[in-house]
Amino acid sequence: MRFEIALFNNNAHIQKQAVNEVLKYNDLTSHFGLELTEKQAIALVETRIFALKENGRIEFGGGVIDKLIYKFCDSPYIWANNYEQILHDLIETFYYYKNETLDLISDDDLINYMKTAFDGVCQGSLELLSGRELDRLAHNMRYGYAPNYMQDEEDEDGEY
Amino acid sequence: MENIEKFSRIDRLKLNEEHYFQSLLEQAYLIGLLSEDELEKIQFDCLAILARRAEQYNNGDSSSIQVEAAQNILTSIMFTVGLYLKTCDCPDDAIDALRKEKLETLYLYGRKQIDKMLNITKLLQGRIINDLIDTPNIFYGSTIADGINGFFKLYRQDFSAHEIHITADYPTYHEVCGLVGIEFIKQYLENIYCENSFCNHFTADCIHHLLCGYHEDYQNLLINLFEPIFITALGCVIAHADVSNLKLSFADIDYLTRIFKGASNEKTELILQSALDELRKLFSLPAYTLRYMKKGLPKIISVIENAIVLNTMDRVFLISKYPENTPVLSFSFGDKMDDELYRKIIDEIMQSQDTSTKIKIIKENIYSFADLEDILLDANLSAEDVNAVLHELTPTEIVALIKKHPMLQEIELYNLRESEVLLCNYLNDFLIALPPQQQIWIKKAAKAIDLID
Asked: What Pfam families does its record include (chain B) (predicted)?
């Protein structure tokens, strides 16, 4: 008798519910000129399922797509053309760093950190966000430092 | 009649003790007691409980958890539900309970059951610790006190109720099989309690000497202490020896061998059974201890059967040994001479050309064994010189030197000075050259001798 916890990730009813919740956020994001079609929402939910599977995680309840949309919709670096793609990348990055931070940081704190870094030092660059800022966050969490702790990483020329 | 039919629908023996809930569902599905829809509903109810537990696990901070953690919590949930279902009169009643009650309710009943078992187990451990056998065996006390305390500290009923966390090194006479979590620990301690309630009829000295008969270094052995005590007590009753002191003699062992030789299994069982009955009367053993001991009889029968074939009855029924009565040889190395004088002698030996002159100097100037040892190490003597010196020594002195400079493993030699390694090698060469009987005698004496520096 096998009890498949993966049922949670692949359950059609839960997926449909997730798509509807994503679409509901169009009312809010339309103020920023951002909207998702149903097809795009389905693709985002699929990305979430893929990311969960890739990172060996299982999600109960609402999920983080809604939270990411809510937090990032007012970013100056997101516009209609790149909105969907950025959300795909953010979802994958989020779950990857949940593992990398050993679950020591809550969903809300991680999203806040991502938003601050994305709009701030990364200036809209997802590469800098995941390759430098979140990497440092994960390192800090693993070694017991504060999330924003900066090690002296610059060499004599002032370069990384 | 109706009851018998109801009882026989799910075979209790086919259910797995460790994964009771899963095996119950499987069997119920196989014989048609549960439909596929009902099974799916139970599965989703389990996952709903998992979702709530996972939220509690994350302190509500995270909507997702790692699959391994979720799987662990799910196993814990199923274990908890299974623990309650085991309390139902029969498996069919358990299926009825699954139909009538919500799974969440059954889970809560299971949690209460775990809490109850945890309290009982803590009380039991307290009682056992108060009546521990007074033994130097390191695994016995450390497992029952420290190990089980470690379990109580690490046990998390909500998220890993099925885990033991500790290794419970000390083996009980009857192995605890197929149980996990608190069920395992409870059964383990119950076994220990039964064993102790019998062993505590004997004095600590008596147990110590009996176990020395098993192995003098039993303190460091991972063995069950009850087994030799129980079997020897049975042997004492059969051989009409002193049971209260567990004293068997070689003559008793011969008697036991004669009794069991050629006896059928049934006859052996009968003899053991009546000896056990005698023990019960003698020590007024409680029913649970008697049941525990009775369960061990088939094991003892096969052990006796093998011992008859191998002629090792004295390893089954033990004869007490008294290591404190073994004579101890003491050897003193004596006082060392004045350093100035020692340096002069060393110089003289080193300047001598031939072995006989060196021997002569040693004989004339060295009066203590401590100085002789220093000379062997410091005077840069050749193999031939050392061999000549060794030939001048008495066997006891050779034994003392071998005890002080035993042949070590290659890796251990790295801790020694070069001169010490050389001396070890010379001593070993000297020993190998001796007749085999003498070699055995020297090795035996080296074990027994006690050096005084």
From this structure: DUF6179
Ramachandran quadrant class, B262 (left: phi over 0; alpha: psi -120 to 50; beta: rest): left
State the Cα–Cα distance between residues B368 and B389, nearest whole angstrom.
14
Q: Which two tokens stand for residue A39?
A: 């097809």
Q: Do B62 and A58 touch (CB under 8 A)?
A: no
Task: List the beta bridge partners of residue B247.
Answer: B242
**A61/B47 CB distance under 8 A:** no
CA A27 to chain centre: 21
Q: Which two tokens stand for residue B300?
A: 């003892």
Question: How many other β-carbons are positioned within 10 Å of the β-carbon of residue A73?
Answer: 18
Q: Model ipTM?
A: 0.84
- Closest by Cβ to A106, choosing from B62, B67, B78: B62
pLDDT digits (tens, 9 = 90+) for B402-446: 888 887 777 777 778 888 888 888 998 998 898 998 888 888 888
* Contacting residues for B32 by C-beta, under 8 A, at least 6 apart: none
Amino acid at B231: I
Long-range CB contacts (within 8 A, 24+) of B64-68: B64/A52, B64/A57, B64/A58, B64/A59, B64/A60, B64/A63, B64/A64, B64/A95, B64/A98, B64/A107, B65/A57, B65/A58, B65/A103, B66/A56, B66/A57, B66/A58, B66/A99, B66/A103, B67/A5, B67/A6, B67/A56, B67/A57, B67/A58, B68/A56
Q: How many CB atoms lie within 10 A of CB A119?
A: 16
Phi and psi at residue B15, in whole multiples of 5°? -85, 140
The answer to whether residue A108 neighbours chain B at the CB level (below 8 Å) is yes
Q: Where are the domains of chain B?
A: 1-171+186-198, 204-324, 329-452
- Residue B305 host element (H or E): helix B297-310
Q: Is B206 on the interface with A (CB under 8 A)?
A: no
Residue A110: both structure tokens together: 């991680």
* CB-nearest partner of A61 from B47, B51, B66: B51
Q: Is B89 helix (H, G, I), strand (E, B) or coil?
A: coil
Looking at every residue in chain B, the average pLDDT score rounds to 91
The three-point CA angle B80-B83-B85 to 5° equals 110
Tokens found for residue A160: 């990384």
Residue A154 has pLDDT above 70, yes or no: no
Of the residues B62, B71, B73, the best mutation for testing chain A's interface (the one with the most A CB atoms within 10 Å of its CB) is: B62
Contact B66 A57 (CB under 8 A): yes
Residues of A in contact with B71 (CB under 8 A): 5
Q: Give the start-to-end residue ranges of the domains of chain A.
A: 7-142
Report residue A61 as tokens.
């309840």
Total length of chain B: 453
Residues with Cβ within 8 Å of B64's Cβ and at least 6 positions away in sequence, in order, are A52, A57, A58, A59, A60, A63, A64, A95, A98, A107
In Å, how far from its chain's centre is CA B453? Answer: 36
B394 CB within 8 Å of a chain A CB: no
Average of per-residue pLDDT across B206-229? 95
> Among B23, B26, B67, whose Cβ lies nearest the Cβ of A5?
B67
CB-count burial class (<10 Å; 0-12, 13-18, 19+) for B453: exposed
Measured between CA atoms, the residue of chain A closest to residue B23 is A1
